[in-house]
Each structure stands twice: as structure tokens, then as C-alpha cells.
Design brief:
CATH architecture: Alpha-Beta Complex
CATH topology: Spore Coat Polysaccharide Biosynthesis Protein SpsA, Chain A
Distance between the termini: 18 Å
Radius of gyration: 17 Å
Number of domains: 1
Structural class: alpha/beta
Strand content: 15-25%
CATH class: Alpha Beta
Shape: globular
Length: 276
């Protein structure tokens, strides 16, 4: 276990692509990304474009040991920050929020990452669900795996609640871990437990019961049902290692049939060895 993530990261941050901040932010998305080299995948580029198209001011926080400027397929409509590969996605989100706390006033704030392949279609239905819910915190999916929690690849926070003291303290005091299970327990599950203790109300766009049995991971075991329900992503691990789930070998043909896209074209140019 290392020190506090922000203490280690903030002095080494590079603002690679500055952008004027909105005076009165309405919709904001902090997108955590990781890459071994500076090349940006089609998935990340499209995710940023779709969020911007839906009215979100996007901040990309890229974790990498590479010091080269990022290479985008098309110039992004986003503010781009590079940071050392410390703290995983939660460390990247914490970094973005620490750098730009004024954005947390926005009525709608998303935390997203690039651990999925896609989006192969519009994000509008998903984001409309987020913006029309009356809950405090929203997730694209939830799960009972390990413990009830919102899955952290896409979370939404409403009405400035990321500025509330308990939540702000959670992000400011994240500790760096090397073990993936510790990351899940203390970051992903830990956040949902904090929200429960503090009596925040949570909801999910697609509830786990619609796609998997209790205790199973919706984006792994229930990937095909998610696609059938309009979920425009597939977990990257299923594309790169289909044996992770029994019907993983059908992922490419399923995506082609549903969206007319080959998910292999959406992957990073170098193998992703970072656990997500």
C-alpha cells in the first residue's frame, strides 16, 4: 500500500490540451483512460465525441507511463490531462475533480472510463435515463457480486453532491493499492457502501436482475442480454479474451449484427495489460 493518490499524482500532472471552463456548467464528464502508449483507441475517441454531442463538457484524465502527447483519430472536444499511472481509474477521477472542483457544481456529473469497447451507438437513451431520474447517484448497471454496488465504469452524480463533505473526503483520501481486489473492495464497493451509510439514493439504468442471476457480473456474464437491451458497449476483456465467459466467442458476431461494427477495430493499438 502506498501513500495518498493525490499527493503522489498532482505535482506530476500535465495539462496536455487546455480548454476554457464553462462559467455555469450544466453537464460534465470526467473520463478516466489508461494506455501503454500515446495512441488513443477508437472507443475512447468515440466516447468523448458522444458525450460532447450530448452536451457534456469532457475532461479526459489519461494515466500512462508514456510522456508523449496523445495521438487522437480526430481532435477531441475535451480538456485533456496526463498523469502517472497511479491510483487506477478512481485515482484519475479524483485527479480531475481536484484540478477542476468548480465543475462539480454542475447538476449532472458523469464519471466514465474506457474499460469497455464502444459506444457503438448513441448514448442518448442512457444519459436521458440518468438525467430524468430523481436519485442522487446513478449507474449504467448494478450488481450483487461481492456486495451490492453500482458498477464503476459509468456513474452519474446529481445536483452537486460530489461537493458534499463525506463524498469529497472519499475522493481526497484515496490510497494507492497494487492489488485488484483491494481496488474493488475499497474503491468500487467502498463508494457504494459510503453512499448507503450517508443515505444517498442510488439507481441503475439496467438492473442486474434483468440480465444475470444474483451475484453474477452483468457486463461479463450478461453481456449479450445487455446488448439486446440497447447497451452500446461490450466489456473489453470479452473481446480480447473470449474464454472469460461461455458465450464470449459470439461477441464479435453479436456486435456486428446489432451495430454493424467489428469490435476489434475499436481496441487500443497495443495490448491492454492493466486490470480494469
Amino acid at each position: 500500500m502506498g501513500g495518498t493518490v493525490l499527493r503522489e499524482v498532482l505535482p506530476r500532472v500535465v495539462i496536455e490540451r487546455p480548454r476554457a471552463l464553462p462559467t455555469h456548467p450544466e453537464r460534465v464528464a470526467f473520463v478516466a483512460s489508461w494506455g501503454a502508449d500515446p495512441h488513443v483507441s477508437r472507443s475512447l475517441s468515440t466516447l468523448v465525441s458522444e458525450l460532447a454531442r450530448c452536451g457534456y463538457f469532457v475532461v479526459v484524465v489519461r494515466a500512462s507511463d508514456s510522456v508523449e502527447p496523445l495521438v487522437w483519430p480526430t481532435p477531441p472536444e475535451a480538456l485533456v490531462v496526463r498523469k502517472p499511472n497511479i491510483g487506477y481509474d478512481f485515482g484519475s477521477w479524483a485527479t480531475g475533480m481536484a484540478l477542476y472542483p468548480q465543475l462539480l457544481r454542475a447538476p449532472f456529473v458523469l464519471l466514465a472510463n474506457d474499460s469497455l469497447v464502444g459506444p457503438f451507438g448513441s448514448l442518448q437513451p442512457m444519459l436521458e435515463d440518468f438525467e430524468t431520474r430523481d436519485t442522487d447517484v446513478w449507474g449504467a448497471t448494478n450488481t450483487l457480486q461481492f456486495s451490492p454496488h453500482l458498477q464503476s465504469y459509468l456513474l452519474g452524480f446529481r445536483n452537486g453532491m460530489l461537493r458534499d463533505r463525506p463524498v469529497r473526503t472519499f475522493w481526497r483520501t484515496l490510497v494507492d493499492h497494487d492489488d485488484k481486489q483491494q481496488i474493488i473492495d475499497q474503491y468500487e464497493i467502498g463508494l457504494s457502501e459510503l453512499l448507503h451509510v450517508e443515505a444517498y439514493v442510488t439507481s441503475a439504468w439496467i438492473d442486474h436482475a434483468q440480465v444475470v442471476e444474483p451475484g453474477e457480473n452483468p457486463v461479463i456474464r450478461g453481456w449479450r442480454r445487455l446488448v439486446q437491451l440497447g447497451f452500446p458497449f461490450v466489456k473489453r476483456e470479452i473481446i480480447t479474451n473470449p474464454s472469460v465467459v461461455a458465450d464470449g466467442v459470439r461477441a464479435r458476431e453479436t456486435v456486428r449484427a446489432a451495430f454493424g461494427e467489428d469490435p476489434m477495430d475499436w481496441l487500443p493499438t497495443t495490448p491492454d495489460t492493466k486490470p480494469r
